[in-house]
Amino acid sequence: SSAGDVDRYEVPSTLVRVGLGDRTELRIGHAGMGWVEERHGTGDSELGVKVNLIERADGWRPEMAMLAGLSLPTGGDKYSSSGIDPSFLILFAHELSPRLSLGYNVGARWESSAGNPERDVFAVYSMALGLGLTGRLGAFFELFGDERQRGNTTTSEGFIAMDRGLTFLLTDIVQLDLYIGRGLAGQTEDVFFGTGLSFRLPR
């Protein structure tokens, strides 16, 4: 990603998802390694759980799930929040047609910072539109951001960004993602891009 004259790189962030039953999923993640100019270091880890509350959409009633997590201070200096920080999201999904889907979520995250005894609180949100182009090729568009909260007041210390990309189902259990995006407002990157690889382990 690039913000002004500063380039930043992050590789490889990882996420392991383990089904614990019909409705519950354990999530274990790590932010990977980051580089900013001459500095580099590892990011924090995350432990979370996702619970499906409504598994099937019915008309305009969406699928619904709750995602709660804890960020763990396992990263290096300047790349770690240095605190155990909670977060939660309420996720919604609609199947608009056999090829078109809509997902959106709202929630909050708390973020520690060195020298500050109180965590910063951010309201977070996103909306994504997915389109199936063929049986193995898809496209998506996403809008997302956050707003810092102080008491009952929303400050201007947040951001809005968008990205779009393609998904390629390489096999029945392996998918490749490519995306590119840009910041629209606030404290965010001018341009960012990336790729991801996900696969399902056979039982």
Describe this structure in words.
The mean pLDDT is 89. Helices cover 0% and strands 69% of the residues. By secondary structure, the chain is an all-beta fold. The strands form two sheets. Strands 3, 4, 7, 8, 9, 10, 11, 12, 13, 14, 15 and 16 form a twelve-stranded antiparallel beta sheet that branches. The chain has strands at 2-3, 6-11, 14-19, 24-30, 33-36, 39-42, 45-54, 63-72, 85-95, 100-113, 116-132, 137-150, 153-154, 159-169, 174-186, 191-199.
Shape: globular
| Range of helix content | under 10%
Give a count of the beta strands, DSSP E runs of length 2 or more.
Answer: 16
Give the oligomeric state of the chains in this entry, treating copies of one chain as homo and distinct chains as hetero: single chain
Following the backbone from N to C, one meets helices and strands in this order, namely EEEEEEEEEEEEEEEE
Mean pLDDT: 89
Question: What are the low-pLDDT stretches, counting only 5+ consecutive residues below 50?
Answer: none
* Strand proportion: over 45%
Q: Which secondary-structure class do the elements indicate?
A: mainly beta
Please outline the major beta sheet.
12 strands, antiparallel
Distance between the amino and carboxyl termini: 37 Å
- List the total number of helices: 0
Radius of gyration: 18 Å
